Amino acid sequence: MITTAGLFTLLGTLSSVTAFVDLVESSTPSCGSAEFPFEKADGTMGTGADALSFHILSNTATGEKVEIIWQLGGKTERALLRSPTTGLLRDVLQTHEGNATAVRANSHWAGAQLLPFANRIANGTYDFFGHTYHLPNNEVTPGVRSDALHGFLFNRSLETRGISCSNESGVPAIHLTLGYRFEADDTTPGWPFKLDVAITYSLSAGALTITTRATSLEASHAVPWFNSWHPYFAVGDVSQARVEFDKCTPDWHASAPAQWSHITMGPGAPKLGDLIPTGAATPWTAFDGETPLGGTETVPTYMDDEFKSLLPNSASVIAACGLWYKQRIHDQGGDKATLVLFADRQHPVFQIYTGARETWGWKAIALEPMSALADAYNNGDGLTVLWPGEVFEGAFGLGIE
């Protein structure tokens, strides 16, 4: 079984997503062999109009597997990993328990890939190089908010572009690449741009890595872009879970009050209000891995909050801290495993949501890696502008300790 150190050794070798994708495309080892005990299969859940097809990546040596619903934008419905604490398999992510109707509705965005924008765009309206665009407002609560939310990919069918196995740094893994092309047609109102997206899912022992490559297909003008992923981590008791944000602090940053900034939202946050950044922020040190989230088992402390790293994406930070942010959720129930969300430094923003238990009964915590701040199409914080032929490359994933 891969150790946590081994996991991040593997991740550390992927010094660029370009190199990683090239590896996926050129690898020739045979999946299903003793050296590469992996397989890819297909499954179906539900019947009739709600039936859904999905891909399954499995590690036949450990029993671990990941379910990826290609008909819903590459949504990760399940990640079954082996706990190093107990040696038993456990669901790292909250699932819909095979209910295809609920999976298709997915009103909570669980496991969805969020692009070409993530989180909220205020009033569904933005200006980009002198033009005003209007996105569909798909999150409407009268008197509270009316915004565009989570992009366009989440309910689209992806094509399979490749599958392979590799043994990078001695850590065997299987890779599945899915893709989609946006054609600047009427299926993306308010976002009239051509873009190709390739998403690679890589399963190794104890970890899932998701790599996104977005390539502008425009011939003469720029494309606005930022992305995220919306995993819900399953825990025994949300109120007792302990969240630990990455603590790496380079020597030159040691005197700073915090590594993380808590983004201030408008009046009524976190439960009400528009949840659009105001431009204000405060230092944040509360996610120390020692303090429970609090509240009660049925009504945990409610958070729908956004945080940004105060460290630059620079060579000196990578030299001191590595390529990856590592956020941990210490589950105090069941096997008391530590669930790890890792994200490269292309994704310095994280959104946490703890209201699932109170609102619809899930014992789960949403923790989302984001490449930019909410409403980045307007505030510009972290927004990627892709010029003709330009590529965005980034990765995130999950593991278990």
Structural class: mainly beta
* Strand composition percent: 35-45%
How many angstroms separate the termini?
A: 11 Å
| Fraction of residues in helix | 10-25%
Give a short account of the largest sheet: 9 strands, antiparallel
CATH uppermost class: Mainly Beta
The shape is globular
Write the layout of secondary structure elements.
Layout: H1 4-13, H2 17-26, E1 38-45, E2 52-59, E3 64-69, E4 75-82, E5 89-91, H3 100-105, E6 113-114, E7 120-121, E8 125-128, E9 131-134, E10 139-141, E11 145-149, E12 159-166, E13 173-183, E14 194-204, E15 207-216, E16 223-225, E17 228-229, E18 232-234, E19 242-244, E20 260-265, E21 277-284, E22 288-292, E23 304-309, H4 315-321, E24 324-330, E25 338-344, E26 349-353, H5 356-360, E27 364-370, H6 376-379, E28 384-386, E29 391-400
Antiparallel strand pairs: 1-2, 2-3, 3-4, 4-5, 6-17, 7-11, 8-9, 10-11, 12-13, 13-14, 14-15, 15-29, 16-28, 18-27, 19-22, 19-24, 20-21, 20-23, 23-26, 24-25, 25-29, 26-27
